[in-house]
Design a protein that fits this description.
Blueprint (H helix, E strand, L loop, with lengths): L14 H27 L7 E6 L2 E7 L8 E6 L3 E8 L17 E8 L10 E5 L2 E7 L14
Antiparallel strand pairs: 1-2, 2-7, 3-4, 4-5, 6-7
């Protein structure tokens, strides 16, 4: 496990940047524990998502049942921080008594640190049948380059 110690210097650094650094460190810690650690602590991520690398792009699928497109926002920060933000609204039932309500409702934010920088201007985002699908091409700096060897 890696630990980073930094000195807090409010005069030299913006507080917002420090909060983002803290969020990044906490995300890395939970990434090391995986889903078992999140579930143990009772903070499993919503929405559930899969992220994989496919050639020169990253692919992401996020399960968002019951959401409408207007209730969903996606942001990319710094070429490698993806944020999915939205609101799942509760179903209003008239003259009904709830016997069980396990699905959560309300606002959510999920931020994921991507393994490589991406070109956010070329992201293809689709929302089909309650599943958000993103194709995120890698940034040119993240693609392998062949180096010519001179004799």
């Amino acid at each position: 496990m890696r630990m980073f110690w930094t000195r807090w210097t409010p005069l030299n650094q913006n507080v917002w940047n420090q909060m983002q650094e803290l969020q990044g460190e906490v995300n890395r810690l939970f990434d090391q524990w995986g889903d078992r650690g999140r579930n143990f602590l009772g903070i499993a991520g919503f929405p559930a998502l899969n992220l994989w690398e496919d050639g020169d792009a990253l692919q992401l699928e996020a399960e968002l049942p019951g959401l409408e497109l207007k209730d969903l926002e996606i942001f990319v920060t710094g070429h490698n921080q993806l944020t999915i933000k939205g609101e799942r609204k509760p179903v209003t039932l008239e003259k009904a008594v709830h016997h069980r309500q396990e699905r959560g409702f309300g606002n959510f934010v999920r931020t994921v640190t991507l393994p490589v920088p991406i070109d956010e201007s070329k992201i293809d985002a689709r929302f089909e049948f309650g599943v958000l699908k993103l194709r995120m091409p890698k940034h040119e700096a993240a693609k392998p380059r062949k180096i010519e060897i001179k004799a």
